[in-house]
Amino acid sequence: MIDKSKNLVAKDNNLVEAKYRLSIQEQRLIAIMVSDIKPDDKDFKTYRYKIKDILSWIGIEDGGYYKKLRAITRRLISRCITIYDPKNETIFQTSWLAGAKYHVKKGYIDLSFHPDLKPYLLQLQKCFTQYALKNVLELKSKYAFRLYELCKQYQSVGKRKFKVDELRELLGLEKNELKQWVHFRTRVLEIAQREINKNTDIKIKYEFEKWGRKIEYIIIHIKSKDKANEIEDKELKGRYTELLKMVIKDYRDKKTIQNAIIKYLKKKGFDYVKRNIEYANEKAEKNYRSFLIQSLKEDWALGWWEDLQEESKRELLIKKIKNAKVRINGEIYNTNENGFVFMKGCVIPPGKLIEGIKAGKYELIN
Q1: CATH domain 1-137 topology
Q2: How many whole angstroms separate alpha carbon 358 and alpha carbon 316?
Q3: How far from 30 is each of 96, 136, 156, CA to CA, in Å?
Q4: Is the pTM of this model over 0.85?
Q5: How far apart are the C-alpha atoms of 224 and 116, rounded to whole Å?
């Protein structure tokens, strides 16, 4: 199966704000087709797909696959999409697909967009919204899909304000569907917010404004995942800067590394991140970025760091036992400049002395 996760979907903003009602599978299919349009295409093509690939991409399960797919393409041919053009003050009605041809024995399908959609999908130069296909293929709610596109359109602005009735219409809700606010909030907004925040490249949160006792507006705040990882706390920001300086110079500007450091600095703390950066700097022979990120994720540095700490403690103890006083079997002895203890008929070397001190057998007297 061809991997389309890196494909880009680009739609004219008037199409993003169009009024229509599609299932999650139907929205996925349209997005897949749009992602196959090249920026320099001057006309629509016939888009050919293996039927088994389409079934997997759009998530058709539980048997009756071909019947369900035919029902989807039939609806995309017949269902109306209403596009409002505020510049020309026109309302335009059309459908998504012009046709769908199934080659049953060969196992593939030919799909074609309705030609009326050319101005909204081809040769886009300005006033369009673009996103990676992978951001929507994991969404399970049809409302999350639509809300993602509407928020993505305003990502650079950082927020978007809707009248409640306007947003309901854009999401494809009928007037009497989920009419009560509590149902709309829990079954639409909260599910959409959760799915978008988990699966896409943006994070959203919403609030509402009342007019009297009635909720009139919904304000959605939008952040890219990169900006959501920004550090606002000054002390934390200083520690992040210190950690980033420890990273090998050629990799300091890599977003994946920056985001990983921020994530684990917030989650695990400074020392955790520090030891894993130091470990990667010493141990990564190739593919430094992947090594460091995986090390941060699984704390590869822990055992190495513990050994270093033990060695450091040992070195410090070696310094302390030189020209010192030690209590052995109740008697106090002096060590020489090399840490040896000379007793009657016996010499305790530094190594044995350190082991005895750690075991509590001997006592180092300050």
Answers
A1: Arc Repressor Mutant, subunit A (1.10.10)
A2: 13
A3: 8, 11, 25
A4: no
A5: 33
CA-wise closest residue to 280 among 261, 262, 266: 261
What's the pLDDT tens digit per position in 74-103? 999 999 999 999 888 999 999 999 999 999
CA distances for 296 relative to 31, 228, 285, 309, angstroms:
35, 19, 17, 19
| Topology given in CATH for the domain delimited by 138-226 | Arc Repressor Mutant, subunit A (1.10.10)
Would you state the torsion angle of the CA atoms of residues 2, 116, 46, 152, taken in this order, to the nearest 10 degrees?
Answer: -10
pLDDT tens-digit profile of 31-78? 999 999 998 899 999 999 999 999 999 998 777 888 999 999 999 999
Site of tokens 């190594």? 351
| Cα distance between residue 140 and residue 28, in whole Å | 10
- Pull the structure tokens for residue 5: 């996760």
Cα–Cα distance between 59 and 277 in angstroms, integer? 40
Encode 305-336 in three state secondary structure. HHHHHHHHHHHHHHHHCCCCEEEECCEEEEEC
Confirm if 113 and 122 have CB atoms less than 8 A apart. no
User: Is the distance from CB of 121 to CB of 11 less than 8 angstroms?
Assistant: yes
CA distance 132 to 157: 19
pLDDT digits (tens, 9 = 90+) for 115-126: 999 999 999 988
